[in-house]
């Protein structure tokens, strides 16, 4: 019902999002992942749909239902997320990268389950870097309006602003991980060319609607 009364700030716009963690396989039963419930990205997907957008959500493994009206593409690894985003991005006006992408993956996936061998020294895992999905999209010849997230454990403003500059994106959303992790509430700060805009602690869906309003404002400017 609430959705019915939301202003249609993104009417006619197409919004692509990433959300959740990625999972990088080590062997058939083990892997490396990040902690991410997916709740913030799913809330933004829902808010964007309520605001009239056509929404594509590229989601890592989470245990959340797909928001009504949203087209979800499920992926597991960062490489799959990367490929899916590149397939989809051209048809979109906005890209919001909320996913907690693993920065590294094992160089090789071992085909059979690795056995414990107590006599031998513990195995080590060689890692290679994953592509920076947001950074690459922002560097496309005619990129969509790009929005990033910076979840930090310290120095939030400094790290968020430096990511905004290095990835060359107009808007980054900062949050301290101790404020929002896995819960239904969060505290955010939006950083754009006009400076820092703190959004006080609120349910993730309320924050998502405020973010959507900011994105709509930026879209008017471009
Ligand atoms: N991101 C991405 N692809 C990656 C890594 C990050 O698209 N391989 C996106 C995230 O979805 C987020 C933003 O980039 O929107 C910032 O992610 P973050 O992990 O905070 O930044 P990094 O540049 O990876 O820096 P670090 O992990 O060292 O803080
Ligand atoms: Ca990272």
Automatic annotation (TrEMBL):
Catalytic activity: (R)-4'-phosphopantothenate + L-cysteine + CTP = N-[(R)-4-phosphopantothenoyl]-L-cysteine + CMP + diphosphate + H(+); N-[(R)-4-phosphopantothenoyl]-L-cysteine + H(+) = (R)-4'-phosphopantetheine + CO2
EC identifiers of the protein: 4.1.1.36, 6.3.2.5
Protein name, per record: Coenzyme A biosynthesis bifunctional protein CoaBC
Positions contributing to CTP binding: 103, 113, 131-134, 149, 163, 167
Region ranges (Phosphopantothenate--cysteine ligase): 15-222
Full protein: residues contained: 176 to 397 of 397
Residue span(s) of domain DNA/pantothenate metabolism flavoprotein C-terminal: 10-216
Function: Catalyzes two sequential steps in the biosynthesis of coenzyme A. In the first step cysteine is conjugated to 4'-phosphopantothenate to form 4-phosphopantothenoylcysteine. In the second step the latter compound is decarboxylated to form 4'-phosphopantotheine.
Cofactor(s), by name: Mg(2+); FMN
Similarity section: In the C-terminal section; belongs to the PPC synthetase family. In the N-terminal section; belongs to the HFCD (homo-oligomeric flavin containing Cys decarboxylase) superfamily.
Pathway connected to this protein: Cofactor biosynthesis; coenzyme A biosynthesis; CoA from (R)-pantothenate: step 3/5; Cofactor biosynthesis; coenzyme A biosynthesis; CoA from (R)-pantothenate: step 2/5
GO cellular component: phosphopantothenoylcysteine decarboxylase complex
Presence of the UniProt keyword Metal-binding in the record: yes
Organism of derivation: Accumulibacter regalis
GO molecular function: FMN binding; metal ion binding; phosphopantothenate--cysteine ligase activity; phosphopantothenoylcysteine decarboxylase activity
Biological process annotations from GO: coenzyme A biosynthetic process; pantothenate catabolic process
UniProt entry keywords in alphabetical sequence: Decarboxylase, Flavoprotein, FMN, Ligase, Lyase, Magnesium, Metal-binding, Multifunctional enzyme
Cofactor remark from the record: Binds 1 FMN per subunit.
Origin: domain of life: Bacteria
Gene: coaBC
